[in-house]
Write a structure and sequence with these properties.
CATH architecture of the largest domain: 3-Layer(aba) Sandwich
Enzyme class: transferase
Cofactor: pyridoxal 5'-phosphate
GO molecular function: adenosylmethionine-8-amino-7-oxononanoate transaminase activity; pyridoxal phosphate binding
Number of strands: 15
Distance between the termini: 53 Å
Order of helices and strands: EEEHHHEHEHHEHEHEHEEHHHEEHEEEH
Oligomer: single chain
Helix content: 25-40%
Shape: globular
Radius of gyration: 22 Å
EC number: 2.6.1.-
Strand content: 15-25%
Structural class: alpha/beta
Bound molecules: 4'-deoxy-4'-aminopyridoxal-5'-phosphate
Largest sheet: 7 strands, mixed
CATH superfamily of the largest domain: Type I PLP-dependent aspartate aminotransferase-like (Major domain)
CATH class of the largest domain: Alpha Beta
Protein name: Aminotransferase
Number of domains: 2
Length: 413
């Protein structure tokens, strides 16, 4: 069958790309046709090193046959069936067990969805309902943090601390208050003012899309102390930082602060299937388990068997191949190189934890990103930061090439 556009991609204007200029012609995008390990191929045969693990998600590298086989085997056995009451299936049970066993809340429960945005919106709803179930329905205020990114559904859009992403959509979800991203005293002031009406706080332990910002000293501990003092909940959005990225299974463990809920997506399957969810800690789970009400939220594809099979296999591969420790090694390699480049004045500085790092340029990163693309390395510019978040299977030689191509692409400010 012919649709009429196969021969000339330039003439197809059907696809509306996310986070892109709607007027940009389809032919101006880089068309990726194949991927293997850390290498991507475009339709001209040019290769790139994927220094961003696609969009911060591909922990185990591309083209892993074990994953493809596990997903295919699951699809052949049970393509899909929902898990709303009264149904369940083994892939969903196994995924929930595997995820909570590596999380800092191994006695918690695991809600499943397909995207980070679904996980975030569910976590925000659960935080408010927790208080309602505890007889405190007036606790509706949710704190967000400047620079935060929490997806693009209504809750996540409102929870964002990146203003341009919130603008232009009309009225958002009520009762959100923004706090300073580095100074926990600001959160302390908000708690002093609204403490008995605050349902919870959502933050990434290391802010990713907002520019790769590890927490300032004492920040996460401060949020934990304030939420406990005031009876509010703490949710860490670990959509980027989960599944080994920062040198522990979760950044909660890296930074030593345990929240009440964790949202996850991306690295849980390394992107081979869309899977996300919320790890619900024991305190919150107790409130839901002891209420008579049913949990009236969820998605058709909550616990999709193929996605769950991908999650279980991915976690097993990360464990078996030592990729959590590899994230620390990758981070140390970037940090050593970036420190030397900072001393030499090539870059202005750097920040990051484990295998999520940013080089800080002396100028906006868009031009450097473009030249790096031409040089065969994919990074992500965020203002003057260039984000690096490679697959945890990347070799030392590949990491060195990513850095060398960056240096060759930097022009004097
Ligand atoms: N939370 C965080 C911390 C994220 O980085 C992202 C995606 N970059 C999301 C939520 C949203 O995930 P998704 O795009 O899968 O909806």
């Amino acid at each position: 069958m012919s649709w009429g556009w196969e021969d000339d991609v330039m003439t197809s204007s059907a696809l509306l790309h996310p986070f892109a200029d709607p007027a940009k012609p389809e032919g101006d995008f880089v068309k990726i046709v194949r991927a293997e390990g850390t290498t991507l191929w475009d339709d001209t045969g040019k290769t790139y090193l994927d220094a961003m693990a696609s969009l911060w998600f591909c922990q185990i590298g591309h083209g892993n046959r074990e994953m493809v086989d596990a997903i295919g085997t699951q699809l052949a056995q049970l393509d899909s069936h929902h898990i709303f009451d009264p149904f369940t299936h083994q892939p969903a049970i196994d995924a929930a067990e595997a995820i909570r066993s590596v999380s800092p809340m191994p006695d918690g429960r695991v809600f499943l969805g397909s995207s980070g945005s679904e996980a975030v919106d569910t976590a925000l709803k659960l935080m408010r309902q927790f208080h309602r179930l505890n007889g405190d329905p007036d606790r509706q205020i949710l704190l967000r943090r400047t620079r935060g990114y929490h997806g693009t559904n209504w809750g996540g859009t409102t929870a964002q601390g990146i203003e341009p992403n919130r603008d232009g959509w009309g009225d958002l979800v009520p009762h959100f208050v923004e706090i300073d991203p580095d100074d926990v005293e600001d959160a302390a002031r908000v708690f002093a003012e609204h403490g008995d009406r605050i349902a919870g706080v959502i933050t990434e332990p290391i802010q990713g899309a907002g520019g790769v910002f590890p927490p300032s000293d004492g920040y996460l501990e401060g949020l934990r102390r304030l939420t406990e003092q005031h009876g509010a909940l703490l949710c860490f959005d670990e959509v980027i930082s989960g599944f080994g990225r920062t040198g522990s299974w979760f950044a909660s463990q890296t930074y030593g602060v345990t929240p009440d809920l964790i949202t996850f997506a991306k690295g849980v399957t390394s992107g081979y299937q869309p899977l996300s969810g919320v790890v619900v800690g024991r305190r919150v789970a107790d409130a839901f388990e002891s209420s008579d009400a049913m949990l009236r939220t969820g998605y058709t594809y909550s616990g999709h068997p193929a996605a769950c099979a991908a999650g279980v296999t991915n976690i097993a591969i990360i464990e078996r191949d030592g990729l959590v420790a590899r994230a620390t090694e990758i981070g140390e390699r970037f940090e050593a190189a970036f420190a030397a480049l900072t001393r030499d004045g090539v870059i202005a500085g750097h920040r990051g934890t484990g295998a999520v790092q940013a080089a800080l340029l002396h100028a906006d990163g868009i031009g450097t990103r473009q030249r790096m693309l031409e040089g065969g390395v994919v990074v992500r510019p965020i203002g003057e930061a260039l984000a690096f978040c490679p697959p945890l299977t990347s070799t030392d030689a590949e990491i060195d090439t990513m850095i060398d191509v960056m240096v060759a692409s930097i022009r004097p400010a």
